[in-house]
Amino acid sequence: MTTAAVVAYYKDESEALVSYAGHPPILYKHTTDKTWSFAKSPDRKVQSDSLPMNLPFDVSPDTQYRQIAIPLAPGDRLFVYTDGITEALSHKGEMFGKDRLKNILDENVTSPLSELKSKVLDALHQHTKKGLTHDDVTLIALEIC
């Protein structure tokens, strides 16, 4: 199954537009925020005309993809990741999860992006106690200039 999060930043409009196709929600943090937030669309899975919303690619040819607008200013940050991070299992079968990911980002809210990414990967390795071969593990952290 193929999922996607499409993020387009428009400097002149000072916003990012995000669309999901079955992908986990990205996180964002404004410079004035003390914690990260998930960029979520409204909880409507089906539109009023019964067309499916935001499903993974090739599930239904009638799927419509909603856009979420996130206003951004210099210093604001985005964090995009694949489900290989949140679905990584511990030796006890416990998923890493979105809450654990957000907690790590919140604990390192002022860290440089390279350190932030390292902290996530370190926590992921500690959680799994093995190599990350279960799924793709991809993350992108960026800051608006």
Q: So, CATH architecture?
A: 4-Layer Sandwich
- Oligomer type: single chain
- Report the top-level CATH class: Alpha Beta
- Find the structural class using helix and strand composition: alpha+beta
Describe the structure.
The protein is an alpha+beta fold and 145 residues long. The chain has a single domain, classed as Phosphatase 2c, domain 1. Helices cover 21% and strands 23% of the residues. It has 3 helices and 7 strands; from the N terminus they run ββββββαααβ. The strands form 2 sheets. It has a 4-stranded antiparallel beta sheet. A 3-stranded antiparallel beta sheet has the order 1-2-5, with no helix packed on it. It is flat.
Structure, briefly:
The chain has 145 residues and is an alpha+beta fold. The chain has helices at residues 83-86, 98-107, 113-128; strands at residues 4-10, 15-21, 27-29, 37-38, 67-71, 77-81, 139-143. The protein has a single domain (4-143), classed as PPM-type phosphatase domain (Phosphatase 2c, domain 1), CATH 3.60.40.
